[in-house]
Amino acid sequence: MSQLPPDYFDLTREAVAHYWRTLELQKGKQGIGDRGHRAAVTGGKQMNGFCHLITELLQQNGLEKEHIHIEKKLELPGYFRPTKKWDMVVLFEERLVAALEFKSMAGSFGNNFNNRAEEALGAGIDVKMAASKGAFGRDSRPWLGWLMLLEDSRKSTTPVSVKEPHFKVLPEFQGKSIAGRFELLLRKLVNEELFSAAALLMSSREAGQTGQYTEPVKDLAMRQFLSSLSGHVQRFRTQLR
Predict the structure, then answer these.
(1) Which domain holds residue 201?
(2) Looking at the domain assignment, is residue 164 inside a domain?
(3) What is the per-residue pLDDT across 131-188, written as a single tens digit (0 to 9) for each?
(4) Averaged pLDDT for residues 189-196
(5) Is 78 among the domain residues?
(6) What Å distances lie between residue 39 and 30, 31, 144, CA to CA?
(7) Is 113 domain-assigned?
(8) d(CA 241, CA 236)
(9) pTM of the shown model
């Protein structure tokens, strides 16, 4: 039976708090005269709390630390490009079990949404095609996960206008906020089988310091995300027996 860490909710809160505290620390180190807020957002390490949570889940389901790659050896072969570096790679007996991406967005929502969408699509399509061509071994079906932590603010929750100089955008995008766009993006990534599961968490700068977060939609909640990965690991281990 697949298992979740009994304290997964607390670990998620710790991960959210770690994100905001690290972001503010990095922002302070850069200084006002340096590269400003962008330097903090792109500084890395903010999402390490989520790496810790997933590590706990994987160990709960029978894997060991040597199977889990976080800091290095993160490159996986692609179909349209030689390799792509993931945030976490899980292997067992030279077989790819899972690959995960942990992404965030705080401010600069407009252009960054498109960047995140293109990044997710590229990663999902590339590794799916690589798997179909046997890049990870015959009959390999790795679990792919995308977790998004989005700043909860007026700008991220206010409907955004769209430009339609030639054709109408798809109806579901009309009147959506950045948060609504992420909901559609992540759900479609899963529905179209580019990713096995996705999660969308939202947290404000102030409340996030203490780990408070919300889950806008149930099908992209943390429990469903973790349960999907846990179930996959258990099925993978059963097939090896």
Answers:
(1) 8-240
(2) yes
(3) 999 999 877 789 999 999 999 999 999 999 999 999 999 999 999 999 999 999 999 9
(4) 97
(5) yes
(6) 7, 10, 28
(7) yes
(8) 9
(9) 0.90
